[in-house]
Amino acid sequence: MEQTKALNALEPFLALSKSATSSRAAADLVTRATSNPNTFLFTELLETPQIQALSQSPDFLPHLRLLEIFSHGTYTAYLASGQQLPQLNDAQTLKLRQLSLLTLARDRSNLTYAALQSALDLPSARALEDLVISAIYAGLVDATLDPHRQAVQVNSLAALRDLAPGAVPPMIRALHAWSSRCESTLEELESQIADIREAAARRQDDKAEQDARLAKLVDEVRKDPEAGAGRKLAVGHGGGGERGTSFLGHTSRAQRYNKRGSTSMMDNTEELDDEAMDVDEEDPEQEKKRASRRKL
Question: What sign does the dihedral 283-284-287-289 (CA atoms) show?
Fold first, then answer.
């Protein structure tokens, strides 16, 4: 929208250029066009025959160079020219600084107050902030001031600067490099997509094979259910036999234990009886000795 507005603002000056037959009239047209607050694109005016004819006039050649700076130059380039270019009025100074800010904002890594003040020849941070605010209201930039960090944060730029001569080939090379990176990325993505699809197809085949085996087993059980029941019974009897054997084994061990216990008890009883018999069978002389002791 801003670009359309700027082109519409330039239309009256393009119409006037057709009647600017003299070098002085063409130079005056340059001054008026660059002072207008709504004109930011100057390539069409710069390419008109009447303006290009200024290159043949030594007195008005500086006006042609000034229009070139407004088209694709910066305020630093204007200052570097010294006294060779016409003196700027206040409106031209503000516009050239705004356009220079638009160019400098392309490098967003160096938008500190100090760097911008130096490039735009501004005396203070307040003057820089006023310039940025005017550029925002003019639709040139979408930016935020950060006084704490002393920097300008630019979010977006308007396409309101003409391309400098020779700027197209580098842009074409950059676009070709970007296109190559995009193609490489797309090829890699397509390869990954193919691998994912192949893996999904393998999983689907495995699942289909498992489903087929399961269905086959189910059909076999349905066709011959007695065989399945017989297998279950065989398994059940086998388990009972083992438990019976185990029970019998425990019983026989208990019986053996009881037998051993009763045998040992009988042996102990016989030993006690023998001792009692030994006590009863004492010597007669010992009996006599006991009797004499009792008399005493």
Answer: negative
Q: What whole-number distance in Å separates Cα of residue 136 and Cα of residue 141?
A: 5
> For 159-175, how does the pLDDT look when each residue is reduced to its tens digit (9 = 90+)?
888 887 877 888 899 99
Cα 221 versus chain centre, distance: 54
* Contact between residue 40 and residue 99 where contact means Cβ atoms under 8 Å apart: yes
What is the maximum span of the chain, computed from C-alpha positions, in angstroms? Answer: 184
Token pair for 208:
């289909």
Q: For the packed helices 90-104 and 125-137, what is the interaxial angle rounded to 10 degrees? A: 90
> By the 8 A CB rule, do 62 and 50 touch?
no
Closest among 208, 79, 53 to 45, alpha carbons compared: 53
Strand partners, 133: none
| Local structure of 201: helix, strand or coil | helix
The beta strand positions in the chain, using DSSP E, are: 141-146, 151-157
Which residues lie below 8 Å from residue 131, measured CB to CB, with a gap of 6+? 94, 97, 98, 101, 120, 122
Closest-CA residue to 99 (of 128, 70, 127): 70
What is the rounded CA–CA span in Å between residue 33 and residue 231?
104
Distance (Å, whole) CA 213 – CA 178? 53
Q: Rounded to whole angstroms, how far apart are CA atoms 70 and 75? A: 9
Closest residue by Cα to residue 27 from 77, 70, 64 = 64
What pLDDT, in 10s, does the model give residues 109-118? 889 999 999 9
Q: Name the pTM for this structure.
A: 0.61
Phi–psi pair at 59, nearest 5 degrees: -75, -30
Looking at residue 121, its amino acid is D
